[in-house]
Amino acid sequence: MIYLSFEQDGIKQIDVQELKELLEKQPKDKVFIDVREPEEYESGHINGVPLVPMHTIPSLVGGFDKEKEYIFICRSGNRSQNVSLFLKENGLEKVTNFNGGMLAWDDEKKEGPEIQLDTEDDLREWKK
Predict the structure, then answer these.
(1) pTM of the model
(2) Which of 36, 45, 85, 102, by CA, is between 20 and 30 Å from 110?
(3) 6-8 and 11-14 as β-strands: parallel, antiparallel, unpaired?
(4) How many C-beta atoms surround the C-beta of residue 31 within 10 A?
Protein backbone atom coordinates (compact mmCIF):
# COMPACT_ATOMS: atom_id res chain seq x y z
CA MET A 1 0.00 0.00 0.00
CA ILE A 2 1.23 3.50 -0.79
CA TYR A 3 1.11 5.87 2.16
CA LEU A 4 0.43 9.55 1.73
CA SER A 5 2.16 10.58 4.94
CA PHE A 6 4.13 13.78 4.86
CA GLU A 7 5.67 16.22 7.29
CA GLN A 8 4.31 19.58 8.35
CA ASP A 9 6.55 21.81 10.48
CA GLY A 10 8.72 18.76 11.20
CA ILE A 11 5.78 16.64 12.41
CA LYS A 12 4.85 13.41 10.62
CA GLN A 13 1.25 13.46 9.34
CA ILE A 14 -0.86 10.38 8.63
CA ASP A 15 -4.18 10.09 6.85
CA VAL A 16 -7.31 8.15 7.77
CA GLN A 17 -6.26 5.00 5.90
CA GLU A 18 -2.90 4.84 7.65
CA LEU A 19 -4.56 5.40 11.03
CA LYS A 20 -7.04 2.58 10.38
CA GLU A 21 -4.23 0.17 9.50
CA LEU A 22 -2.21 1.11 12.59
CA LEU A 23 -5.27 0.74 14.83
CA GLU A 24 -5.92 -2.67 13.33
CA LYS A 25 -2.33 -3.85 13.93
CA GLN A 26 -2.01 -2.21 17.40
CA PRO A 27 1.81 -2.21 17.41
CA LYS A 28 3.22 -2.13 20.95
CA ASP A 29 5.49 0.84 20.17
CA LYS A 30 2.61 3.14 19.12
CA VAL A 31 0.18 4.92 21.44
CA PHE A 32 -2.98 6.63 20.16
CA ILE A 33 -4.29 9.63 22.12
CA ASP A 34 -7.34 11.84 21.58
CA VAL A 35 -6.57 15.41 22.74
CA ARG A 36 -10.07 16.92 22.44
CA GLU A 37 -12.24 18.11 25.32
CA PRO A 38 -14.30 15.50 27.25
CA GLU A 39 -17.63 16.59 25.72
CA GLU A 40 -16.20 16.27 22.19
CA TYR A 41 -14.73 12.85 23.01
CA GLU A 42 -18.02 11.64 24.48
CA SER A 43 -19.97 12.74 21.41
CA GLY A 44 -17.93 10.31 19.28
CA HIS A 45 -14.41 8.88 19.48
CA ILE A 46 -12.42 5.97 18.10
CA ASN A 47 -13.05 2.89 20.24
CA GLY A 48 -10.16 2.10 22.57
CA VAL A 49 -8.36 5.43 22.10
CA PRO A 50 -7.92 7.20 25.44
CA LEU A 51 -8.66 10.86 26.11
CA VAL A 52 -5.92 13.22 27.28
CA PRO A 53 -7.32 16.74 26.86
CA MET A 54 -4.86 19.14 25.23
CA HIS A 55 -4.80 21.52 28.21
CA THR A 56 -3.54 18.68 30.47
CA ILE A 57 -0.57 17.74 28.23
CA PRO A 58 1.95 20.21 29.79
CA SER A 59 1.44 18.66 33.23
CA LEU A 60 1.90 15.13 31.82
CA VAL A 61 5.15 15.58 29.85
CA GLY A 62 7.06 13.30 32.24
CA GLY A 63 4.66 10.43 31.57
CA PHE A 64 5.49 10.11 27.87
CA ASP A 65 7.86 7.26 26.93
CA LYS A 66 10.58 8.47 24.52
CA GLU A 67 10.80 4.95 23.04
CA LYS A 68 7.17 4.95 21.87
CA GLU A 69 5.53 6.79 19.02
CA TYR A 70 2.49 8.87 19.97
CA ILE A 71 -0.24 9.46 17.43
CA PHE A 72 -2.46 12.39 18.36
CA ILE A 73 -6.08 12.81 17.28
CA CYS A 74 -8.39 15.84 17.54
CA ARG A 75 -11.37 17.26 15.66
CA SER A 76 -9.57 18.65 12.61
CA GLY A 77 -5.87 17.99 13.10
CA ASN A 78 -4.93 21.45 14.44
CA ARG A 79 -4.84 20.79 18.19
CA SER A 80 -3.14 17.44 17.69
CA GLN A 81 -0.52 19.17 15.51
CA ASN A 82 0.07 21.74 18.28
CA VAL A 83 0.38 18.97 20.89
CA SER A 84 2.91 17.20 18.63
CA LEU A 85 4.93 20.41 18.21
CA PHE A 86 4.85 21.10 21.97
CA LEU A 87 6.05 17.59 22.84
CA LYS A 88 8.75 17.67 20.18
CA GLU A 89 10.01 20.95 21.68
CA ASN A 90 10.06 19.13 25.04
CA GLY A 91 12.26 16.28 23.84
CA LEU A 92 9.79 13.73 22.48
CA GLU A 93 10.87 12.86 18.93
CA LYS A 94 8.32 10.18 17.97
CA VAL A 95 5.16 12.26 17.57
CA THR A 96 2.63 11.94 14.74
CA ASN A 97 -0.47 13.92 13.85
CA PHE A 98 -3.67 12.43 12.41
CA ASN A 99 -4.14 14.95 9.62
CA GLY A 100 -7.80 15.83 9.16
CA GLY A 101 -8.79 14.59 12.61
CA MET A 102 -12.19 13.20 13.48
CA LEU A 103 -13.73 15.25 10.67
CA ALA A 104 -11.89 12.89 8.29
CA TRP A 105 -12.68 9.71 10.27
CA ASP A 106 -15.19 7.68 8.26
CA ASP A 107 -15.45 4.57 10.41
CA GLU A 108 -17.33 3.59 13.58
CA LYS A 109 -17.36 5.93 16.56
CA LYS A 110 -18.08 5.10 20.16
CA GLU A 111 -20.15 7.53 22.21
CA GLY A 112 -19.92 8.31 25.91
CA PRO A 113 -16.94 8.27 28.24
CA GLU A 114 -14.46 5.43 27.84
CA ILE A 115 -10.86 6.00 28.94
CA GLN A 116 -9.30 9.19 30.28
CA LEU A 117 -5.66 9.39 31.32
CA ASP A 118 -5.24 12.05 34.02
CA THR A 119 -1.77 11.57 35.49
CA GLU A 120 1.78 10.84 34.39
CA ASP A 121 1.39 7.37 35.93
CA ASP A 122 -1.83 6.75 33.94
CA LEU A 123 0.06 7.67 30.79
CA ARG A 124 3.11 5.57 31.68
CA GLU A 125 1.00 2.50 32.48
CA TRP A 126 -1.30 2.74 29.43
CA LYS A 127 -0.54 -0.08 26.94
CA LYS A 128 2.64 -0.95 28.84
Answers:
(1) 0.95
(2) 85
(3) antiparallel
(4) 21
Alpha-carbon span 71 to 21, nearest angstrom? 13
Of these residues, 11, 33, 74, 102, which one is catalytic? 74
CA 53 to chain centre: 10
Check pLDDT > 90 for residue 86. Answer: yes
SS (H, E, C) the chain: CCCCCEEECCEEEECHHHHHHHHHHCCCCEEEEECCCHHHHHCCECCCCCECCHHHHHHHHHHCCCCCEEEEECCCCHHHHHHHHHHHHCCCCCEEEECCHHHHCCCCCECCCCCECCCHHHHHHCCC
Asked about 74 being catalytic, the answer comes back as yes
pLDDT in tens, 10-23: 999 999 999 999 99
